[in-house]
Amino acid sequence: MIRNLFFYIREAFFSTKKNGIISLATIVCLTATLIIVGIFLIISLNINIFIANLESQLIAVAYLTDDLSQDEIEKLVQNTGGLEGVKGVDYVSKEEALQRLKEDLTEHKEILAGIQENPLPSSLEITVYDSNYLEEASYQISQFKGIEEVNYGGQLTKNLLIVFEFIRKAGLGIILVLLFVSILIMFAVIKISVHSRQEEIEIMALVGATNWFIRWPFIIEGFFKGLISSLLAFAVLGKAYQYFSGQAKEIIPFISINLEVDFALRIGIILLFLGIFIGVFGSMLSLRRISYEKL
Questions:
Q1: Beta pairing partners, 127
Q2: For residue 20, what pLDDT is reported?
Q3: What pTM did the predictor assign?
Q4: Residue predicted with more confidence, 212 or 144
Q5: One domain, residues 166 and 43
Q6: In sequence order, which residues have a C-beta less than 8 Å from that of residue 95 and are 6 or more positions away?
Q7: 146 — alpha (psi -120 to 50), left (phi > 0) or beta?
Q8: Cα–Cα distance, 177 to 187 (Å, whole number)
Q9: Model confidence at 249, in pLDDT bands (50, 70, 90)?
């Protein structure tokens, strides 16, 4: 078995060397394709993070009238917390609202200098499990006695989530198309390798070589091309992502971008498996007729 393995690997390298220009072009094409796939993977995964963060921060703010007693406020908190989809309810008093405003305007204290009385209403901050609950929960809360107004971002928030969801799905579609194209490329390359060695394969078949004995060198050839392409793609993407994500953080500091090492490793592992899959599957696809063509 070990002797056969060395034979398969030697034959795979021989085939690669024999078709050197085509092999190099294949690796370049697969590397470029995997880089593009990696870019869309990074975008898609970061959009998932952004949407998760956005949904976790989605809140409805219900402003209360000033004539409510403490018991009425507690009842409002209890009734609001019992609504479907509501995750939590926090009461913000007039004093706390003013303190938050002062903290937000630390560098512009003159704006509040002329205010003698607290003009801010007390409020309830309502978090929900999912953005789909936001509109319905806000409507129901607005019907409660003592609620003056409910603000939740409305259609703008929903449109933003729809846009990012569309981008994520479009990216997935592009990834699938690129994978299909990559498999076709590998299919064509291995076909060329098979035909360039057709006479040799015919001789092997005549002396009793099994179909799988003939196939394995080409499968290993596809494996190595996919492996090399994925490693090159990851090396390029790793450097580019590190640089551009740092730039994006400086330009748009509030944007959620994953810079952790485990995130880069996940991308690398995905690209590694994709590259190997493309190489092996594309090779096997091109060799499926060997069993009855008697090459």
A1: 59, 88
A2: 75
A3: 0.63
A4: 144
A5: yes
A6: 118
A7: left
A8: 15
A9: low
